[in-house]
């Protein structure tokens, strides 16, 4: 058993090195909602470790225990720092998803759950697919829309727009 | 693992490391001295020698800088939820001007204020403490020392022994008053003393007004003598013997609610350290240039 990779790094498995089957024939099974959710969960943990962890000290310093402090923050002129920190978190989250999807076709969570993007996801399409992570209107509507579409067996909106898909990497055993 | 896979994995690790680095560095930069006040009572430390500019080391505390303390007091004024202020004082005094600046800012606060003197709250630090509504000290705290000094070393004799002479070139006969390279003339000493007496008079007047005492009564105490807390209570320089607990009880009584203390300390973020580094080097460079050009000895007035 050996492992081959196409130019985009998407693996498939063959019995010997002479096999060179087209990728599409290998990946037909669309990833279900549960796999995608688990993959997203793993990606979220990665983000928490890489981004939220270091930045949490900034929020702890500037935000008190009382939620009404958020208004006091605006009065005291601290809000710009919190705004900047939040904006940077979103940018870094986007960078993580876009760069991994662009280069590997998979994020760390997707690698763990053995799912990958199908179709040509260039930089622009990777960016568009990653818009779901932005915690602002109208993007957070996708947090409801995308899972509902998957639940009813439809293709998610962002995948329809980018003409890509998310498939399960299948192993082929021959001989 | 094949060699080809190594660079590909490295790219992924590079992305993850880059993201972590950016978030960590940004967090360090954003953790600056700007803080959000959380509490209805703010504790402002006044520790170390009182100065106006606070030249000090990169990482160490640089004393009680009047501009920083006044900034904190102004921030307290703007924060509506703050109901009282506790000044934690542990200072031997310092610059007369800086002490007066802080004292005026304390008096201008329209909130209940308590000065809590720790080991030392003398001279300029006592000036500040007297501006608060209520002064608390430990029975063994050192306080008082209401006086001014401008003493300095002069060594014309030492220079003479090494055949070094001081060429006096001035326009304005008192321009080099206090220069250590020559003796202080009697007339100059009188002049200098009159300035110190004037400052002393200001100091006495402020303490008398702050403590509700007669000026002459304070003048009798203002020999420069320091008093222990127990003595200070007897002569009316402080209001109560005790510590932080007593200060909190007083504030609770005044503000009508349980005090939640926020200790307002200056935190040095990485930008502050970098700024200190630049100004520290700039100061050293300037000092070096000045030493080449030559500088007059300057007399400092200390309370």
Question: What's the SSE blueprint?
Answer:
The complex is a heterodimer of chains A (175) and B (303).
Chain A: E1 2-5, E2 11-14, H1 23-26, H2 33-62, H3 69-76, H4 79-103, H5 108-112, E3 115-118, H6 123-129, H7 142-151, H8 157-162, E4 165-168
Antiparallel strand pairs in A: 1-2, 3-4
Chain B: H1 5-30, E1 41-47, E2 50-51, E3 64-65, H2 66-78, E4 84-91, H3 96-108, E5 113-122, H4 124-130, E6 134-137, E7 142-144, H5 156-161, H6 186-211, H7 215-221, E8 226-228, H8 229-235, E9 240-241, H9 244-255, E10 261-263, H10 270-293
Parallel strand pairs in B: 1-4, 1-10, 2-3, 4-5, 5-6, 5-7, 6-9
Antiparallel strand pairs in B: 7-8
Helix pairs in contact in B: 2-3, 3-4, 6-7
Structure in words:
The longest helix of chain A is centred in the first third of the chain and has 30 residues, at 33-62. Chain A is globular, with a radius of gyration of 20 Å. Chain A is mainly α. In chain A, helix 2 runs antiparallel to helix 4 (79-103). Chain A contains eight helices and four strands. Chain A has helices at residues 23-26, 33-62, 69-76, 79-103, 108-112, 123-129, 142-151, 157-162, and strands spanning 2-5, 11-14, 115-118, 165-168. Residues 1-19 and 64-72 of chain A have low confidence and may be disordered. By secondary structure, chain B is α/β, with parallel strands linked by helices. Chain B is 47% helix and 15% strand. Chain B has helices at residues 5-30, 66-78, 96-108, 124-130, 156-161, 186-211, 215-221, 229-235, 244-255, 270-293, and strands spanning 41-47, 50-51, 64-65, 84-91, 113-122, 134-137, 142-144, 226-228, 240-241, 261-263. In chain B, strands 1, 4, 5, 6, 7, 8, 9 and 10 form an eight-stranded mixed beta sheet that branches. Chain B has a two-stranded parallel sheet with strand order 2-3. In chain B, helix 3 packs parallel to helix 4 (124-130). The relative contact order of chain B is 0.16.
């Amino acid at each position: 058993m050996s492992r081959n990779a196409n130019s985009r790094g998407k693996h498939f498995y063959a019995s010997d090195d002479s096999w060179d089957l087209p990728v599409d024939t290998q990946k037909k099974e669309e990833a279900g909602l549960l796999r995608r959710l688990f993959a997203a969960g793993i990606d979220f943990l990665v983000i928490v470790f890489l981004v939220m962890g270091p930045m949490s000290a900034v929020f702890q310093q500037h935000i008190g225990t009382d939620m009404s402090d958020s208004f006091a923050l605006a009065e005291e002129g601290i809000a710009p720092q919190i705004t900047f920190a939040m904006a940077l978190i979103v940018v870094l989250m986007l960078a993580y998803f876009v760069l991994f999807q662009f280069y590997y076709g998979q994020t760390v969570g997707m690698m763990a759950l053995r799912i990958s993007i199908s179709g040509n996801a260039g930089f622009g399409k990777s960016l568009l697919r990653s818009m779901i992570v932005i915690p602002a209107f109208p993007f957070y509507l996708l947090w409801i829309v995308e899972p509902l579409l998957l639940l009813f067996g439809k293709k998610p909106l962002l995948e329809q727009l980018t003409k890509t898909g998310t498939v399960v990497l299948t192993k082929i055993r021959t001989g | 693992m094949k060699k080809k896979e190594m660079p590909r994995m490295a790219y992924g690790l590079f992305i993850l490391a880059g993201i972590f680095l950016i978030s960590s560095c940004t967090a360090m930069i954003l953790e600056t001295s700007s803080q959000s006040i959380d509490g209805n009572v703010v504790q402002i430390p006044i520790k170390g020698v009182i100065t106006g500019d606070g030249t000090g080391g990169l990482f160490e505390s640089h004393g009680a800088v009047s501009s920083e303390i006044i900034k904190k007091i102004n921030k307290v004024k703007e924060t509506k939820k703050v109901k009282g202020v506790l000044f934690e004082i542990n200072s031997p005094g310092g610059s007369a001007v800086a002490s007066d600046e802080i004292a005026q800012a304390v008096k201008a606060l329209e909130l209940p204020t308590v000065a809590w003197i720790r080991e030392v709250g003398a001279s300029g630090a006592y000036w500040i403490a007297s501006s608060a509504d209520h002064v608390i000290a430990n029975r063994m705290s050192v306080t008082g020392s209401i006086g001014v000094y401008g003493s300095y070393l002069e060594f014309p004799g030492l220079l003479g022994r090494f055949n070094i002479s001081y060429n006096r070139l001035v326009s304005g006969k008192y321009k080099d008053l206090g220069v250590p390279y020559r003796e202080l003339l009697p007339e100059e000493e009188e002049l200098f003393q009159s300035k110190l007496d004037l400052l002393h008079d200001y100091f006495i007047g402020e303490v008398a007004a702050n403590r509700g005492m007669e000026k002459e009564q304070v003048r009798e105490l203002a020999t420069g003598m320091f008093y222990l807390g127990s003595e200070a209570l007897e002569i009316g320089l402080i209001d109560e013997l005790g510590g932080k607990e007593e200060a909190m009880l007083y504030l609770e009584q005044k503000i009508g609610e349980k005090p939640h203390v926020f200790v307002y300390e200056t935190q040095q973020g990485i930008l502050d350290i970098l700024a200190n580094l630049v100004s520290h080097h700039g100061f050293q460079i300037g000092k070096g240039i000045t030493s080449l050009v030559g500088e007059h000895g300057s007399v400092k007035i200390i309370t």
